[in-house]
Structure of Inositol 2-dehydrogenase:
Amino acid sequence: MSEPLGVAVLGAGRMGADHIRRLDRVVSGARVAAVGDPDRDRAEEAAAGIDGVSVHTEAEAALDAPGVAAVLIASPGPAHEEALLAAFARGLPVLCEKPMVPDAAGALRVVEAEARLGRRLAQIGFMRRYDTEYRRLKALLDSGRLGRPLMLHCTHRNVSSPPGFTSAMLVDSSVSHEIDAARWLLGQEPAAVTVLRPRSTARAPEGLLDPQFVLLETEEGVLVDVEILVNSGFGYQVRCEAVCEAGSARIGEDRAMVVTTSGAASEEVPQDYLVRFAGAYDREVQEWVDATRRGEVTGPGTWDGYAASATAEAGVRSQRTGARTTVELAPRPPLFA
Ligand SMILES: NC(=O)C1=CN([C@@H]2O[C@H](COP(=O)(O)OP(=O)(O)OC[C@H]3O[C@@H](n4cnc5c(N)ncnc54)[C@H](O)[C@@H]3O)[C@@H](O)[C@H]2O)C=CC1
Ligand SMILES: O=C1[C@@H](O)[C@H](O)[C@@H](O)[C@H](O)[C@H]1O
């Protein structure tokens, strides 16, 4: 049995702490070797009780810590480019949370840096590709049983947005999941995006455009509509219905316990992604650890991260005017063919 993969986790906030717990207690073949977060208290709290872990307030010190052989980036999106480039400079394999880099130019610099290395090192945290329902939908579409896809109708609702969440982030952070899922399910790149702004919910913080309605058109003419509402107040709901020439398929119906009493039935609704996608995160990190130990990258990569960011950036431009905006992708380097 070879050594467990020593992972440095950058960012020990909500996602980082959950990934640290997962690496420490859920997945096999890995251990948390270092935690890096400018907030030392947070890093220490997340690392508490883990044998052999070191805690750092500088990301680069965490990457250079003893026993580190791979990196999991869970810092805020704007910090990802620097962390990815630092990992590449050290030849360290990476699992980087979405959005890979929120702006398209920065995302492309990451793609180009990896292309210059001549080998893939990074996986991006589009965990829906590891969700059992999404995987069943993908397998069904790939089987051809439903015929050619015509439309995807998607719903993405959060209970509330975290502090500092901006109108752009509804598209480049939240809807980045639907952009990636649509590209993956359909095997097509987006060609244009239109973002409409209905009136905002009174639950949204002052000035936040919430909800928004995002319409993607793919290069082969499939329409993907996404309702994004990050201050629903009532639940975490992620749904997707594929409408095809010979049938339709829907995933994401809330499937928790149904309670019937006094002549009415009620159903539990998950309150956040850590519950709804718990199994997907576990599979994502386990498959990343396994592939990394084999010296491979098997999940979504930097090209997928770039395509999502470029599409989202066009969406944020459209958000200002409501105008249909074309998505211009750079040529795809052969490494990502
Ligand atoms: N895949 C998914 O479903 C989800 C992904 N995310 C993504 O995970 C990432 C982190 O999000 P949250 O945990 O919600 O944020 P958070 O705000 O809870 O935590 C971020 C942490 O990163 C630290 N940090 C700031 N700058 C840093 C740097 N340069 N290096 C290292 N650490 C730094 C902060 O001190 C904080 O502790 C984001 O990219 C976000 O989009 C978040 C929620 C769900
Ligand atoms: O990635 C995520 C968050 O960053 C984002 O803010 C939420 O809207 C998503 O539901 C969640 O999966």
Remarks:
- The pocket of NAI (ligand 1) is lined by residues 10-16, 36-39, 42, 59, 74-77, 79, 97-98, 125, 127, 173, 273 (CB under 6 Å).
- The chain is about 35% helix and 25% strand.
